[in-house]
Amino acid sequence: MPHPVLWYIKLCRTAFTLQLVEILSLLGLTMVASREYKPAHEIFFVTFIMSSLLYMIAMNLQYYLSRKKLWNAFTLEEQKHQKRLLGLFIFNITCFFVSMYFFYRHNRYCEPGVYSIYALVESIIIVSNITFHVAESAMFTKKEIVFGTESLKSPPKSD
């Protein structure tokens, strides 16, 4: 079995690709309205939902792997953060299945008001997706990213 670091690197690349697909599909959704060209809109929507859910899974696995297999020194705040992200994923996927139920009922029986419920749940999915990304970025508010090998605290020496 490959070393956990190799799995972690692959997971990071997968998460990056999924987030890129998610962003591009959202861009497609904003550019193509369902009234203009419904098949393309449906493809963009399904791609957005699937890449979003898979990204959430990848990120939760990434946090789990980094905590359990690579670095054992997660703070209490980081553990709470991971639980929050897992909860948001569970909420999002539950809303997804609920929306599919109402979408099926709307298409199968054409009941009055069912499409409105579907649209409401779809909006909740969008908001929970945004909440996931905001919660995810909140973990990095107290972190610094340093590029290079020299410290930038002192000005460079001039001749």
Layout: helices, strands, pairs:
Blueprint: H1 4-31, H2 38-70, H3 76-109, H4 114-138
Helix pairs in contact: 1-2, 2-3, 3-4
Subcellular location: Golgi apparatus membrane
Keywords: Golgi apparatus, GPI-anchor biosynthesis, Membrane, Transmembrane, Transmembrane helix
Transmembrane segments: 5-31, 43-65, 85-104, 116-135
Distance between the termini: 54 Å
User: Whole-number average pLDDT?
Assistant: 87
Major sheet:
none
> Outline, from the CA principal axes?
elongated
What is the number of E strands?
Answer: 0
Q: Number of domains in the coordinates? A: 2
How much β-strand is present in the residues? under 5%
Q: Tell me roughly what share of residues is in helical segments.
A: over 70%
Give the C-alpha Rg.
20 Å
> Secondary-structure element sequence?
HHHH
| Unreliable spans | none
**Number of helical segments with 4 or more residues:** 4
Helical/strand content category: mainly alpha
Protein name: Post-GPI attachment to proteins factor 2-like
Domain CWH43-like N-terminal: 1-134
Subcellular location: Golgi apparatus membrane
Membrane topology: Multi-pass membrane protein
Would you write up a description of this structure?
The protein is mainly alpha-helical. α1 (4-31) runs antiparallel to α2 (38-70), α2 runs antiparallel to α3 and α3 packs antiparallel against α4 (114-138). The chain starts with a helix and ends in a 21-residue tail after the last helix. The protein has helices spanning 4-31, 38-70, 76-109, 114-138. The model has no long low-confidence stretch (mean pLDDT 87). The chain folds into 2 domains: 1-73; 75-140.
